[in-house]
Hints:
Shape: globular
CATH architecture of the largest domain: 3-Layer(aba) Sandwich
Structural class: alpha/beta
CATH topology of the largest domain: Rossmann fold
Strand content: 15-25%
Number of strands: 7
Distance between the termini: 64 Å
Order of helices and strands: HHHEEHEEHEEEH
Radius of gyration: 22 Å
Amino acid sequence: MNKIILISFSLVLVILLSACSPSGYLRDEVFVNSNLVERNHSAGAALVARSQHHLNAGSPILYASFVNVDDLQNSSSLGRIMSQQVTTPFSNNGYYVVEMLLRQNVYIKQREGEFLLSRELKNISSDHNAQAVIVGTYAVGTENVYVSAKLIDVRNNKVLSSYDYPIPMNEDIKQLLQ
Length: 178
């Protein structure tokens, strides 16, 4: 009887261990870790959680395309979509997020997105009676894109909250960076 239990246990153990083979594990991990939308939503949720005591849900929040840290005048499809996705938890939690793509008084450079230039930030914030702006930078590495997202009080440029996170490099991310 003990021999049958031992053999059965050994078979179950072999099956379980084979299901955790390195190639399967790495493939699944890369898939999970590459979920751009999920990572950006997590960043936005962290910004909300860390700054909610500073924010008024009825006052507008602006956002700008995330930009390449090595060239603050340039963004990419990745930078534009990251800023859009980071705002989602704000609007889903009842905050008033102003859709910047529809604004004509924001400096928009073709194919680079919306940039809130510091000299214009006060004017734009005043025009919209904004309380804060979501901004971000990214740095492209070999295996990751490193992102830093911040929520900034427009009255005094104080960082209300920030969140840093990596985006694993894959073919989608490479395409969005072009």
